[in-house]
């Protein structure tokens, strides 16, 4: 074991002692059974929806037990940090109601910080120094080339690869050799001295999976990285042990890819003298691809990014409801409001990865929007458009009465309201035709939307309806003028009549009505045309008909 003077000389002289840190970060004063959870995103890319899912679970479990949900930014891999990641985190947490009880985003809060790992270097170095003092860690000077040679030799001998036992040349190096390497200015990392042995087994109880058994860790893992200056940062493994102890986390929720790290983490907790945390390893979110499933991929799948849901404008309650249903299928059978307030239960999580299905999400979202009042729909569209489609905001401001009238078409006073909005970005396509600023007049009578009708006839029908248009009256009265229009221009009154002698007619009643529909809405399919005209008003209806009539 290296003497204390040499060990202490490896670290800044002003580091606190472990006992000081225990006083600075005391156990939390919380009710029995309260869970302290954390979410630890890394600013090396966009927020994955799986991260949103994990954060949601962590927050719910903490709050449902009277505990605390902490956000910790795990930014020790600064070479891969992406500019603007903190801003994206802020957008995601704000939008999906995942603002933490403690953390630096949206603003510094809490007594257990700093909450960026890059600002906690002294805490990690204190505990690495303590492990070295006790012979449970050591400086390692092996070069990349030497490590590669060790791995090659192990593979040749068909042995497990890694840095352990006789394959760890600096594990039991003499003090003189260590001092000589330091005097020569050789870079070093700190390695944990594992007591595990090749082939030994390890078991623990996962809060979600029950008893889990696997091979124990036998590697002397790196716990403190090399650095050209005194600011040395830890690896994920070591930061996890120190941070979750000092922040007094008692349940770590993370995906199953970290299962294999539990033996290493438990060894670190034991060596540091910390009470180990409990774990709940979630199944990862999956995607159906042909006849098989695979993990939702940052690289392949746009819906893996949280920004996908924000840019599309899926209402937050619909996304929350959908994700909660993936976690506990029982919640997917509840009304949305009830599901959002019913606590998640770990014993109801499945061990197979739930499928992310944006079609299903769209259905849920459309159902949710259909329950909202007109003003609530306008508010949702406005909030989304302010960020992603500013022209829509101008339209909403310029036409407040028309906006509400348009949204109410086939939504108010009906048993089955229209569900043409599944997300706020659908507004332009679904309702744009109501607004002169967004509507493009149909002026070509040969347009394919009129089917096979003769262009001259299309123009004539539009002109006739514009000249004779009557706006007043109930729906049957209003539609009678369309029947009369069709009759005047020789259209068959129904399909049966038309089929008897198709050459005798230019088309059917519906073809004549389609001229009016396309001229007024720009589409062959639209909400009830009578209700559309109520929203538009007589002047705008006639103006659009005359634009086609020429």
TrEMBL record:
Domain Aminoacyl-tRNA synthetase class I anticodon-binding residue range list: 511-547
Domain Glutamyl/glutaminyl-tRNA synthetase class Ib catalytic, chain residue ranges per copy? 35-324
Q: State a single Gene Ontology molecular function.
A: tRNA binding
Instruction: Output the SUPFAM superfamilies linked to this UniProt entry.
Output: An anticodon-binding domain of class I aminoacyl-tRNA synthetases, Nucleotidylyl transferase
| Domain of life, source organism | Bacteria
Concerning InterPro entries, the annotation shows: aa-tRNA-synth_I_cd-bd, aa-tRNA-synth_I_codon-bd_sub2, aa-tRNA-synth_I_CS, aa_tRNA-synth_I_cd-bd_sf, Glu/Gln-tRNA-synth, Glu/Gln-tRNA-synth_Ib_cat-dom, GluQ/Sye, Rossmann-like_a/b/a_fold
Q: What GO biological process term is on the record, naming one? A: glutamyl-tRNA aminoacylation
Q: Where are the transmembrane segments?
A: none
Q: What is the name attached to this protein's record?
A: Glutamyl-tRNA synthetase
> What species was this sequence derived from?
Actinomycetospora succinea
Assigned keywords, A-Z: Aminoacyl-tRNA synthetase, ATP-binding, Ligase, Nucleotide-binding, Protein biosynthesis
* One GO CC term on file: cytosol
Q: Which family does it belong to?
A: Belongs to the class-I aminoacyl-tRNA synthetase family. Glutamate--tRNA ligase type 1 subfamily.
Q: Which residues form the signal peptide?
A: none
